[in-house]
Amino acid sequence: MKKTLLAAAMLASFAGIAQAEPSVTLYGVIDTGLGYNKIKGDGYSGSKLGMINGIQAGSRWGLRGSEDLGDGLRAVFKLESGFDSANGQRGQSGRLFGRQATIGLANDAWGTLEFGRQATIGSNYLADIDPFYTSYTQSNLGLGFSAANTMRWDNMVMYRTPSVNGFEFGVGYSFNADDTNADQTGFRTADNTRGITAGLRYVQGPLNVALTYDQLNGANNSSIDNGATPRQYALGVSYDLEVVKLAAAYGRTTDGWFVGQDLPAGTPFSDEFGTNRFVDGFKANSYMLGATLPVGASGSLFASWQHVDPSNSKLTGGDENMNVYSVGYTYDLSKRTNLYAYGSYGTDYAFVDGLKSTAAGVGIRHQF
Fold first, then answer.
1. 271 touches 284 (CB < 8 A)
2. Is 2 buried (19+), middle (13-18) or exposed (0-12) by CB count in 10 A?
3. I need a labelling partner for 243 at 20 to 30 A (CA). Which of 48, 77, 86, 211 fits?
């Protein structure tokens, strides 16, 4: 009898230890293909054909895990490293875990509190609205809504509530948005470029509504601040009718531009348009309409139109209305592997009169 009780106690002890063991998952994405890009405007014409990387989804590998701390509390972490699958080099300015490096605490009742480098609330919430998600260069919402272009900040504290009746709220603050920028690092807090990100969304059944706000506070010792404080307010909505999923978004950007998307090197304003720019007095209204259409059991066709109306020429030297028309297609070969193709055409690109940009590509993506 005593031996039976002892054995039962030992088994219960082992079960408790096993239950407390943390879970760690290795995962990743490899995305590679062939692409074409052409820029043509007054005094400039150039094109490029070659290998492309991370078009549908940025190539990456990562580790994520959690540990049960009891009473519903969990320790959580995520380390995610981006890389160029065409040459094996690290992404995100050579950071080891440039896509995300966070640790925090989570509870189903009160939400998640995380510390470290990660994407902003605006980037995460608006990505689920966009038919192109955060993918496909020149096509996704980040082109016209610069704070939605997978903007990642270093040194961030972020809190997200659990979903309550479809509602979820998130807010984050970065003490130094970019440790790699010499203009944004200093001993005093005010010597760093700081960021605020917040959002509220409602997801219930086929409806998804997101309201976001992002802001950058320039460093006191920065030569590019000029007293400007870039801000972006954005509202997006999508509704899935099953036969087609419709999407629309509106954004208002003032006093500059956030990460944006780079123009090819050597084109007009390529050094300015793809980086955080503080431009006092700049304003722009951004619009997006999109749709996603299932094609058979394995395919999906999606398209969008973006229109950006700037108020002046302080950002890139032009003030023309930019229009971008994009279409894409994916076909699933399995649950983890798919093929994709896309094309995009932009007029008065980067708000420059007559500047046209064409981008197209085909590729394969594998998830593990």
1. no
2. exposed
3. 211
Helix (H, G, I), strand (E, B) or coil at 153: strand
Q: What is the dihedral of CA 258, 259, 261, 262, to 10 degrees?
A: 110
Q: How far apart are CA 156 and CA 173, in angstroms?
A: 5
Q: What is the pLDDT of residues 135-165, one digit of tens each?
A: 898 999 988 998 988 899 999 999 999 999 9
Please answer whether residues 345 and 39 qualify as being in contact, where contact means their C-beta atoms are separated by less than 8 angstroms.
Answer: no
| Phi-psi group of 350: left, alpha or beta (phi > 0 → left; psi -120 to 50 → alpha; rest → beta) | left
Task: Taking the CA atoms of 323, 177, 131 and 165 in sequence, report the sign of the dihedral they define.
Answer: negative
| CA 141 – CA 134 distance, rounded (Å) | 7
Which residues pair with residue 86 across a beta bridge? none
**DSSP of 302-364:** EEEEEEEEESSSTTTS--PPEEEEEEEEEEESSSSEEEEEEEEEEESGGG-TT-EEEEEEEEE
**Domain limits, the chain:** 34-59+120-367
User: Integer distance in angstroms from the first to the last C-alpha of the chain?
Assistant: 50
What's the half-sphere exposure (Cβ side, CA atoms, 13 Å) at 172? 35
What does the pLDDT look like over 86-110, one tens digit per residue? 899 998 888 999 999 999 999 999 9
Q: What is the spatial distance between Cα 121 and Cα 118, in angstroms, rounded to a whole number?
A: 9
What's the mean per-residue pLDDT of the chain? Answer: 87
More confident residue, 184 or 313: 313
Beta-strand ranges (E) seen in 71-206 are 73-82, 100-107, 111-119, 152-160, 167-174, 194-204
317-to-75, 115, 261 alpha-carbon distances in Å: 49, 38, 17
pLDDT at 185: 55
Token pair 């500047």 is found at 355
